[in-house]
Amino acid sequence: MYKIAVAGTGYVGLVAGVCFAEVGHQVTCVDIDEKKVALMKSGVSPIYEAGLTELMLKNYASGRIDYTTDYKSAYKDADAIFIGVGTPEQPDGSANLSHIATVARQIAETIEKDCLVVVKSTVPVGTNDKVEQFIQDFLIRDVKVDVASNPEFLAQGSAVDDTLHAERIIIGTESKWAEELLTKIYRPFHIPIVSVNRRSAEMIKYASNDFLALKISYMNDIANLCELVGADIQDVAIGMSFDERIGNKFLNAGIGFGGSCFPKDTKALDYIARQHGYELKTVKAAIDVNKQQKRVLYEKASKRLITFNGLKVAVLGLTFKPGTDDLREAASLANIPLLLEQGADIYAYDPVGADNFERLYPAGKNGTGSITYVAKIEHALKDASVCFIFTEWGEIKAVLPETYKSLMRTPLVYDGRNIYHVQKMQDAGVEYYSIGRKP
Ligand code: UGA
Questions:
Q1: How many structural domains compose the chain?
Q2: Are residues 260 and 275 in the same domain?
Q3: Which residues, by range, are in coiled-coil regions (predicted)?
């Protein structure tokens, strides 16, 4: 078993650290935020993620994981240091690598023995080469350092399970030593390892995410056409899914993809292509369709209603998908400002994301409109003139069609996640609009 340090305790770093500890490695997670470190030591996860707290408590109690702000003590004698810090999107679509650079320099100035530095963060192709050079430039002691690329494929909401039971582990290395060490570190996971060079590994991450984003945008594009020609996107998806070359996953049309990855990684790859004088037309199309898709429900409702001004508007679901409290690039963030601008009185419900949303949009008057956060779906629906569904939380899916009819002033529902059967909503007396299906 190896001594591993992990830089950054966001989704990528913390989940990786906890899973390394779970399979028996000795792990120290490093973060600059002292409050966060104190919380993690007491077993509190800074992110909402199924199964994570249990594994944090178990492995902390057994002494296999610790958390610290003292990067020096964590890095100096580590066999491998995994970098899982953020690479946020910049206004031009490129990735901001400043956090990676900071960690790389700290590593160079700290390590006292041969060490493998592993970049898990999603980074533009060629970054690992630069990280290696950067570390060499700042290295203080006479030790060997290799850099490997090891992109992460976990999805929020199922991060622990995705890591412990991943479909593949990608390792990108430029030396036998790095390849062998990383393979040994991952051996206890019993997951197929695909070993390629560093640039290919970096590209696999973008190519995979952007392919999935493309798949979603394609289905959304087809869904919009389905509405115009009288076809049903869900039936179309089922028909398509029997072809194994297409598969049955990621065919759900909806209100566009959100989260911290697809929006960022599509723009980043588009940027990388442009930097090389190449136009990545397919990925650009995925970005464009997604931008437009986030507004389709609002556009539909705007055509149906004279105004939102003074209307009680129920919003069910704020996060970018269920199982997370993350709001990044969520459809709610694209629509709620528009509704507030139009004077809507919004009553918003989300089982875990409401607090985060309230930090961005405090409860009360907002321009001509207002926003109120409710703990019960019924409180949002009571006397509402219109309801928007932005996230397919189980609690929201469990609301019966009759409930909209009985509670709302006007049972008018715009569903961005196609969670109801069209006929059942109509039979219950609900005026129901969804994505890619005939009203
Ligand atoms: C995504 C990928 O699924 C992971 O494999 C990847 O590791 C991760 O990005 C990353 O790069 O870190 P994530 O963003 O957590 O994971 O969430 P997804 O479950 O992929 O959903 C992304 C968005 O696509 C959500 O807004 C979801 O509602 C939407 N989506 C997904 C659809 O609209 N339709 C679908 O059929 C599937």
A1: 3
A2: yes
A3: none
The residue whose CA is least distant from atom 6 of ligand 1 is 153
Question: Cα–Cα distance between 45 and 25 in angstroms, integer?
Answer: 20
Q: Report d(CA 106, CA 13) in Å as an integer.
A: 17
**CA 154 to centroid of ligand 1, rounded, Å:** 9
For residues 251 and 351, membership in a common domain is answered with: no
Q: What is the DSSP string of 248-293?
A: SSS----S---SSSHHHHHHHHHHHHHHTT---HHHHHHHHHHHHH
Question: Average pLDDT, stretch 116-126?
Answer: 95
Residue that terminates a domain, selected from 196, 214, 233: 196
**Separation of 155 CA from ligand 1 center, angstroms?**
6
Instruction: Say yes or no: CB of residue 117 within 6 Å of ligand 1.
Output: no
CA angle 76, 137, 81 (to 5 degrees): 30
Best mutation site among 162, 204, 206, 212 for ligand 1 pocket (most ligand atoms within 8 Å of CB): 212
Question: Once rounded to an integer, what is the mean pLDDT over residues 354-373?
Answer: 96
Q: How far is the CA of 306 from the centre of ligand 1 (A)?
A: 35
Per the prediction, the chain carries an average pLDDT of 96
Residues 89, 26 share a domain: yes
pTM given for the model: 0.94
**ipTM summary value:** 0.98
What is the extent of the structural domain holding 236? 205-292
Predicted pLDDT of residue 54: 95
